[in-house]
UniProtKB/TrEMBL annotation:
Alphabetical list of Pfam families matching this protein: DUF5644, HdrB-like_C
Official protein name in the record: Uncharacterized protein
Residue ranges occupied by any DUF5644 domain in the UniProt entry: 100-200
HdrB-like C-terminal domain mapped to chain residues: 273-354
Top-level taxonomic group: Bacteria
Amino acid sequence: MKIEVALFRFDYKSDYLPYYKKYFLKLTEEKTLLDLLNSMYKQEKFEYENSESFIVNINNKYISCKEELSKIIDYFGNELKIEPISIRRCMNDLIINEDDFYAKLSLLEEFLTKEEIEKYETYKIYYYASNSFNFEKDYIGDAIIILANDLIQKQPKNKEAILNTLKACEYGVQYHTDLSTRVFNFDEEIEKTIRKISALLSLEKSEDKQNFKINKKTTLNFKEINSEVIENSFKDFSICYYGNKQKTINYLNKLDSKYISLDTQNIDLAKNSFHINKDFTFKLASSVLLEAFDKGADFLVVDEINNFYLFDFNRKELNKVAGREVNIPVLHINELKALACGEIEVAKNSLKQHYINPEIV
């Protein structure tokens, strides 16, 4: 099997900007990701850690070098882009400065033994995989939250003290965003653990108990359209989608339009902590609108009512955190289906209630 790899290269002592070195490899005996890095190193030297516990970023997924190469290729295909787990903290090629990771241990220092510190190191992938750092650099990180759970299990008498320590953090658990789409071969128990700590701190509130309509009291009831008949063409439109439902993606691909894929298509918007951390959710949501707008989309499609409210009804707040006006319209999938199958009046009734009317009809 032949694969193409673009490897991130950078030396903070001599390079002003990073670049990518292309490798064209014929795989023979490589079984793991580490084997691949070792084979690449034989062609041309670069900096990495020759260890199965070493972590890299491949095609925007965080991956341990112990992972089977065949599974990685099955998932991504034969074109891989390998980067360090933090470009911002890169020192030399795939090696980064990890001082920030270890600095977080000071939060729980009084409860730690050597064993706990070693355990914390195994959570490094969850620390650097967090999308939260792209929006709040002072976030305590997911690794320390997972470690806090371990400490509570081992030291139940210190439970309240540990929770109070976390609760006192200005950029604490309320800044967590879901890891499941960011880590390759993700263990769902990790997410459950973080959510458990969040619940113990009373930071969680389910979506159905949240109010995502800050500036409007209007409640929209999008008529469910079961028909997937397409009578009207969308060939002159470019469409983006926020969500992770394959059914919606399949439908959008049927339209005679240009479908633009977003890197932010399924990022977590931290809606469960919206009631106490609105600005953080607005920052996350604005990144979706900005990407869709900058990629030339005519509108953004969503398929959940709360996502519609968040993106459309809070446009003033989203523009504020974005630092500019992003007047891209948002359509619910049922409105798009109504337009496509010819139920124009049905679509008109809801479109006129948007903060930004797409003015398609």
